[in-house]
Every structure is written in structure tokens, then in C-alpha cells.
Design brief:
This is DUF1573 domain-containing protein. This protein has 172 residues and is an alpha+beta fold. The protein has two domains: 1-42; 45-171, Immunoglobulin-like, CATH 2.60.40.10. It has one helix at residues 2-38; strands spanning 44-45, 48-49, 54-61, 67-75, 81-88, 93-98, 104-108, 121-123, 128-135, 146-156, 160-171. Strands 1, 3, 5, 8, 10 and 11 form a six-stranded mixed β-sheet that branches. Strands 2-4-9-6-7 form a five-stranded antiparallel β-sheet, with no helix packed on it. The longest helix is centred in the N-terminal third of the chain and has 37 residues, at 2-38. Mean pLDDT is 85; it is low at 24-41.
Length: 172
């Protein structure tokens, strides 16, 4: 009887240790995926440039609705560069690429929160494009009041990334 109880306790301990190990392994994979998605790990700086890659909206009110900012992105190299992907750091933020003809490509949003289409926008040598960033202060409801810091990440055909950032203080 005593040895049966010890065996059952040992098995229970092994199951618990196994569950902790399995959970830890899952978190390690998730961390790597998130870092890869945000451009924080294993990526290089893009050859594309932006004279302004940060904008602070200051204080904005939820009752006034969406705010937007247009960033100029340039290709100062001697060859064509393609923006292959565009994604945002949060579902409350969308991005569009305004083409040379004035048409907008997108919306590009947060991976995992719906379909994010490939950008496939070629910027010829010496040309520029506008990246329009739209922030919806109502997306998170009442919990979205306070300081926000959001990012739009562009990946070019060489694997480099360019990050655009917006900030605001959201009030009701």
C-alpha cells in the first residue's frame, strides 16, 4: 500500500514537471515569433529612409475619432527597392502605402488580427512613397485611455526593416 502511494506521488510529480517544461518550451517559441514579427531580432536596417520616423500626436480625444500621419519613405540607392511587407504593432493602427499614381495600397494591420496582404510596392531609385498611418483611439474602448506607443514596420526586398512610430495621450 505504501509503495503504491509513493509511485502515485512520483507519477504526479513527473506529470507536473512535464507540464511546466511543455509550457516553458511553448513560451520560448512564442517569444521568438513575436520578436521576429516586430523586427526586433535578426533583422537589419533598411536601405529605405524616412526624414521623419517618429510623430507625437500630443493629447487626442476618443470622441474626436481617428487621427492620421503621413510619413515620407525614400529610396536613395541606385537600384529599385521593393517594400515586401508592412505591418503594425497593434490592431488599433492601420497603414497604407500611397503609390506614385496617388492610389492607396492596404490596409496593412497587425499580424494575427486578420489578413495582412503583401505590400509588393516597388520604389524606384531616387523615388519616394507616402506611408499613411491611421490610429483609432476607440479600438480598445474605455481601457484605451492613456499613453500609447505604436509602430509600423516596413520590410524591404533585402530583408531590412524601417520602423515608423506614433505616440499620443488618449483622453475620453
Amino acid at each position: 500500500m505504501k509503495s503504491k502511494t509513493l509511485i502515485n506521488i512520483a507519477l504526479l510529480v513527473l506529470v507536473i514537471v512535464g507540464l511546466f517544461a511543455w509550457g516553458y518550451a511553448g513560451r520560448v517559441g512564442t517569444t521568438a515569433s513575436v520578436q521576429g514579427a516586430s523586427g526586433a531580432s535578426g533583422t537589419s536596417k533598411s536601405v529605405l529612409t524616412a526624414p521623419e520616423n517618429f510623430y507625437d500626436f500630443g493629447t487626442i480625444s476618443m470622441k474626436n475619432g481617428n487621427v492620421s500621419k503621413e510619413f515620407q519613405v525614400s529610396n536613395s540607392t541606385g537600384e529599385d527597392i521593393t517594400i515586401s511587407t508592412v505591418f503594425t504593432s497593434c490592431m488599433c493602427t492601420l497603414a497604407y502605402i500611397v503609390g506614385a499614381d496617388g492610389s492607396a495600397k492596404g490596409p496593412f494591420g497587425m499580424p494575427g488580427m486578420g489578413y495582412v496582404p503583401p505590400a509588393d510596392e516597388t520604389i524606384h531609385a531616387g523615388e519616394s512613397r507616402v506611408v499613411r498611418v491611421i490610429y483609432n483611439p476607440n479600438a480598445h474602448g474605455p481601457a484605451g485611455v492613456g499613453r500609447i506607443d505604436r509602430f509600423v514596420t516596413l520590410t524591404d526586398s533585402r530583408g531590412g526593416t524601417l520602423e515608423l512610430e506614433i505616440k499620443a495621450l488618449v483622453t475620453p
